[in-house]
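DM from R.C. (forwarded with permission)

"hey, sorry to bug you on a friday — could you get me a structure for this? deadline for the figure draft is monday and I only need the backbone to look sensible"
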Amino acid sequence: MIGKLKQNLLLACLVISSVTVFYLGQHAMECHHRIEERSQPVRMESAKPTPRTPMSLKANQSFPYNKDMPLVFIGGVPRSGTTLMRAMLDAHPDIRCGEETRVIPRILAVKQMWARSSKEKVRLDEAGVTDEVLDSAMQAFLLEIIVKHGDPAPYLCNKDPFALKSLAYLAKIFPNAKFLLMVRDGRASVHSMISRKVTIAGFDLNSYRDCLTKWNRAIETMYSQCMEVGYKRCMLVHYEQLVLHPEQWMRTLLKFLNIPWDDAVLHHEEMIGKVGGVSLSKVERSTDQVIKPVNVEALSKWVGKIPADVLRDMPVIAPMLAKLGYDPYANPPSYGKPDQ
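My reply, with the result:
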């Protein structure tokens, strides 16, 4: 009886999702066609009356946007420093990331589900909903979300951690986009999830073993796609090195993104809540941490907290630790010394 109920609920959810995506897809395709038909690029108008900052924007100024613009996507397993990364970039006068949209990874997951089903692929093709049609709709829909959920800026970025599970697809539909994959010692990420009770779909917060297994699977998926896309478009950013050597890493990162240097990225906490600065969500769990300056407080909080049997099996549970440069046997590890 329970199994039948779950099956019916799942079917209902799929139907609702399909109808919703079809409607949004239609709207998005209309937006896309309007963009393509205009001789001038669409202009990005502010969703709010206040300009971003006197240094980079003037009141009523707008910027062109289209699928070929140099978007920036920040992602990784939650609790890996994605919020800190986007806050540091948001402090730059010419960059706007903003809060997590939550919509983007969900719509990408639906597209991924369709792509995995050969039967669904046949049905869509028979209906004329080809890969080209879907890609065009996805481009327009995602672009509208990224552009319209915040103020205009010369450079736009999106931070939805699990969106990078579709990194290769995003690289395909946004040919000039670049990707920042945040990497953190999985033991620290998982301890943060569990100790702060951060709910993540599929992660059992009562089990370090389960969470580390899921962490390994998620980061492996994103890492492999980052490698597939290549170093010219995807950059690994180790959280530990970012907080130990913030200026070195931010200079390297901005050079990778082809964005001019600005000292403001080293003092994001001073820009929180200011016009053109860093806007924080009241519901995101990392908000209470990124109001502080960059610090090394959280690096080794996990030491002494993970069960002995899990530590013993760590190389088997989380083989990606070693692949990413972390010693699975080190308790505590040596991440390096901070800049003075």
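R.C.: lifesaver. The beta strands are 42-44, 63-65, 72-75, 95-96, 155-159, 178-183, 234-238.
me: no worries. The two ends are 63 Å apart (CA to CA).
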